Amino acid sequence: MNTSRTERGVTYGILGLFALIALTPVAGILSTALSSQSSLDTGFALPDGLNWGNFADAWTRGHFGSYLFSSVLVAVAVVAATTVLATLAAYAFGTMRFPGSNWLFYLFVVGLTLPQEAVIVPLYFDLRHWGLTNTYWGLILPQTAQSLAFGVFWMRTYFRNTPRSLLEAARIDGATHWSTLTRILVPMGRPAFSTLTVIVFMWTWNEFLMALVMVSDEAHRTVPLGLAFFQGQHSSDTALLAAAATLIALPVVLVYLVLQRRFIQGMLTGSAKE
Amino acid sequence: MSAHTGTGSRGSSAALRRLAARYRRQAPGEPRAVGYLYVLPALAVFGVFLLWPLGQTGWLSLLHWDGLTRASWAGLDNYQDLLTDPELRAPFAHAAVLLLFYAVLPVAIGLLLTAALTRFRIRGMTFYRTVLFLPQVLAMVVVGVAWRAVLAPDGLLNDTLGAVGLDGLARSWLGDDTWALPAVGAIGTWVETGLCLVLFLAGAQRIPRELYEAARIDGAGPVREFFAVTLPGLRAEIAVALTLTMVAALRNFDLIYITTSGGPGNATSVPAYEVYRRAFESGEVGSASAMGITLTAVIFALTMVVTRLVEGRRR
Questions:
Q1: In this complex, which of B30, B45, B198 lies closest to A97 when CB atoms are compared?
Q2: I need a surface site. Which of A103, A139, A143, B152 has the fewest CB within 10 A?
Q3: Average pLDDT of span A96-121
Q4: Is the predicted pLDDT of residue A31 greater than 90, yes or no?
Q5: Which CATH superfamily is domain A68-235+244-268 in?
Q6: Who contacts A264 (Cβ-Cβ below 8 Å, separation ≥6)?
Q7: Domain boundaries in chain A?
Q8: Chain A closest-CA separation from residue B244 CA (Å)
Q9: Structure confidence at residue B53 as a pLDDT band (50, 70, 90)
Q10: Phi and psi dihedrals of A193, rounded to 5?
Q11: Residue of A nearest to B293 (CA)
Q12: pLDDT at B6
C-alpha cells in the first residue's frame, strides 16, 4: 500500500518512543541494581562498574534466598493443584451434559472478576480459626481457589474445541471417560496446558495482598512481601532494593520472553467472554 | 422455581428411572452423572475458599465488629455510612479518577497508536509487542519500587525536568496533595497501555484488508479510515480492554500500598486499600466488609455495562 516516507518515519518514531517509555523504569531498576551501594540518591543510579555483589547481599542480608524458596514452593503447589482440579472440572463442563452444569460453570466464571477484597477479610478469620495462617497452606489453598476461575474457564474452552469425532472414536474403541481424558485429551492439550501454567505461575508469583494478610512470620514470606518489608526498612538502600526487585521480576520475565505468545493469549482471555 | 417442583413430584419414580437410564449411556457429550464427580474437587476448593468467604463478607458487612470483641448487629448502617461519611466516599471518588488513568487513557492511546500502526506492515513488530506488553508481567510490587525511583524528589522525572530547564515543575510527586493521585494514575497508564495496544493490534489484523482498500478508493484519509473501518472493527477488543483495565483499576491495592499507603493524608486512598486498612489496621471489620461488597458490586455493574454498550451484545 502507498504510504509516504514521512508517515513511516513518524510511525516508527512513535513506536520507538512508547517502547522507550515502557523500558525506562525497567532499565532504571537494572542499572541501579548494578550500581554501588554508597549512592544516597533515591532515584535511579548509573553503575560505576558491575556490582554483582548487590544480588548476593540481597540474597543473604535481605533474606531473599529464603523468600524465594517460599515463593517457589507456593507457586509450584498452586500451579499443580489448579491444573489438576481445573482439568477435571473443565472436562466435565466441556464434554458432558448434566443438570445444572451451566449454572455450576457460571459460578466459576464469577470468580474471574471477583476482587480479592470481597473475600479477604473473612478468609483471614477463617484460616486463623483453622490454624492455617502463617503456613504455606494458608497461601496455597485460597490462591488455588482464585486461579480455578480462570483455569476452569480456559480448559473448558480447550475441551469444547476438540473435535466431537475424536471423542466418538475413542468411545467406539471402548475407551472409558477416564482414559479418554488421560490418554487422548491431556497429551493433545499441551498448548492449552502451557498457557494455563505460565499464567497461574505468574499470578501466584506476583501475589501480594494474600501473602500480606495471611503471613506475619518471616519464615513463610514470599518475595513480593519480602520486597515490601525490605523497602520499609531499607528505603535508602536503593541498590539493594533494586537488586531484590530484579530477583523477583527475573523468573517471570524470563518465562515471558520465551513463551510470549502464551502469556499474551492467556492474559487477554482473562475477561469472561462466552 | 416453585412451578418446576410441582411437576417434578408427580410421577417422580418414572422420571427418576428415565433420568437414570439417560445417565447410564457412555457417550461423551451425552448426559452423565459422572460429570458431578469430576467437578466436585474443584468446586470444593472453590466453594470453601472463595464462595463461602464471599457470603461471610456479606454477613460481616451487616455487623459492627472490631475483630476481637463481640459483634453487634448493624443492619445497613455500614452501607449508609458509605454514602454519608466523606471519609468513606473519598476512596470511591479516587477510584473514579484512577479509572480515567487506568482504563480510558490507555484505551485512547492504544486506539491512536493502532490507527497509526495499521497503515502499513511494521518491521520488528514482535519486538515492539514484547516490550510494550512487558509491564503487564511485572509484579505490581516491583512496578511500585521502580516508579518510586522515577517520582522521588531526586528521581528521574525531576532530574529530567531540571535538565530541560523546567525546575519549577519539579516536586515530590507522590508526597504532593494534588499530584499524588495523578502520579499513581500515570503508573497505571504505563502498565495498561501495552495491554490495550497488543489487544487492538491483534484485532486490527483480523479486519479484512479489502475494507481499507475500499475506504481508500473512496478517498478516505487516515482519520475517516479510522472512524469508518478500524474503530467499528475493534468493538469486541475495546470491550475486553475496558473490562480488563477497569477491573485492574478497581482492584488496585499493591501499587497504592508500595507507593503512597493511601497518603499524603488520604489523597490516594482507594476502596481496595481501605478494605485492608479498616479490617486489619483500625479494627472496623464491618465497615471494611461493606466496602468490599460495594466494590464488588461496582466491578460487576461496570463490567456488565461495558459488555452491553461497547460490544452491543443483547444477552
A1: B30
A2: A103
A3: 91
A4: no
A5: MetI-like (1.10.3720.10)
A6: B129, B133, B198
A7: 68-235+244-268
A8: 6
A9: very high
A10: -70, -35
A11: A118
A12: 37
Domain-located, residue B166: yes
Is B237 inside a domain boundary? yes
**B34:A96 CB<8 A:** yes
Among the partner residues B113, B150, B272, nearest to A115 by beta-carbon distance: B272
pLDDT higher than 70, residue B89: yes
pLDDT tier for residue B4 given thresholds of 50, 70 and 90: very low
Minimal Cα distance from B142: which residue of A?
A245
Contact across the interface for B130 and A260, Cβ inside 8 Å: yes
Q: Read off the pLDDT of residues B105-154 as tens digits, 9 standing for 90 and up.
A: 999 999 988 887 777 777 888 888 889 999 999 999 999 999 988 898 88
What dihedral angle (degrees, nearest 10) is formed by the CA atoms of A163, A166, A168, A173? 180
- B27 and A171 within 8 Å at the Cβ level: the answer is yes
Q: Which of A45-49, B122-126, B213-217 holds the top average pLDDT?
A: B213-217
Residue B53 touches partner A, C-beta closer than 8 Å:
yes
Residue B264 within a domain:
yes
How high is the pLDDT of residue B257? Answer: 93
Q: Is B312 on the interface with A (CB under 8 A)?
A: no
ipTM of the complex: 0.89
Question: How confident is residue B224, by pLDDT bands cut at 50, 70 and 90?
Answer: confident
pLDDT class of A42 with cuts at 50, 70, 90: low
Single-letter code of the amino acid located at A65: G
Cell numbers placing B61: 458487612
Q: What is the mean pLDDT of chain A?
A: 87
Q: Do A25 and B272 touch (CB under 8 A)?
A: no
pLDDT value of position A241:
87
Is B38 inside any structural domain? Answer: no
The pLDDT assigned to A40 comes to 60
Residues of A whose CB is below 8 A from B247: 113, 115, 271
Domain tally for chain B? 1
What are phi and psi for residue A46, nearest 5 degrees? -90, 135
The single residue listed with the C-alpha cell 498457557 is A195
pLDDT of B56 = 95
Whether B13 has a pLDDT exceeding 70, the answer reads: no
Closest CA to B271 of B284, B289, B258, B283: B289
Residue among B29, B52, B148 minimizing CB distance to A95: B29
Look at A23 and B155 and tell me if their CB atoms are within 8 Å: no
| Nearest alpha-carbon partner for B200 in B273, B109, B279 | B109
DSSP A53-94: HHHHHHHHTT-HHHHHHHHHHHHHHHHHHHHHHHHHHHHHHH
What whole-number distance in Å separates Cα of residue B118 and Cα of residue B141?
Answer: 34
CATH value at residue B132 = 1.10.3720.10
- pTM here is 0.87
Cβ within 8 Å, pair A268-B147: no
Cross-chain residue pair B119–A11, CB shorter than 8 Å:
yes
The domain containing residue B197 runs over which residues?
A: 77-309
Interchain CB distance below 8 Å, A113 and B247 = yes
Query: Which of chain B's residues have a Cβ under 8 Å away from the Cβ of A116?
Result: 251, 253
C-alpha cell at A247: 530477583
- Distance from the Cα of A57 to chain B's closest Cα (Å) equals 18
Which residue, B272, B313, B137, is CA-closest to A264?
B137
